[in-house]
Amino acid sequence: MCASVGIQGIAWAFGGMIFALVYCTAGISGGHINPAVTFGLFLARKLSLTRALYYIVMQCLGAICGAGVVKGFQPKQYQALGGGSNTVAPGYTKGSGLGAEIIGTFVLVYTVFSATDAKRNARDSHVPILAPLPIGFAVFLVHLATIPITGTGINPARSLGAAIIYNKDHSWDDHWVFWVGPFIGAALAALYHVIVIRAIPFKSRS
């Protein structure tokens, strides 16, 4: 018998939940549930600094509460699985973990930019309705690739909440990787979107 759902099950759970959360909160906050995504959108001038900071604080508080709920409902499993805190897996260097977080977050944030692009929304009426689907699928794919390396962060709030509630030495050893990596990945995605993609000239009528 299977002892757990495995990497595929974990990846599907994260991807499916992100799809649902983005779909449900898109009309309220724009679906901001990840500081890295919020940071990327801020760099692309799609958010004000005040709103971005407010979102990030609320995201972190939500993650702390969520980790606390998990600990309260499943204390034995919570302790046995290290509180779900992110660490760089044995056999990988911190550089490898950082690289995985940068690439994974780049994929996620660039997917967000592509799925919510105003020009696509104007051209293809179905894009706003389906936007949460590619975002959730991107999260699924990134988890498949990076769970064996870092447990998959790509969301600093999720990593912070787990580290604070579990609060053991190993949960803080590599914690900087799960802030620096996602923020670099988000910045690169914003840069690519604004400077490269949005700068592509469109045919003008003569």
From TrEMBL:
Record's keyword terms, sorted: Membrane, Transmembrane, Transmembrane helix, Transport
Gene3D superfamilies cross-referenced by the UniProt entry: Glycerol uptake facilitator protein
InterPro entries, A to Z: Aquaporin-like (IPR023271), Aquaporin_transptr (IPR034294), MIP (IPR000425), MIP_CS (IPR022357)
Keyword Iron tagged: no
Transmembrane segments: 12-32, 52-70, 129-149, 176-200
Keyword presence, Transmembrane: yes
Membrane topology classification: Multi-pass membrane protein
Subcellular location: Membrane
Family recorded in the similarity comment: Belongs to the MIP/aquaporin (TC 1.A.8) family.
Name the UniProt record assigns to this protein: Aquaporin
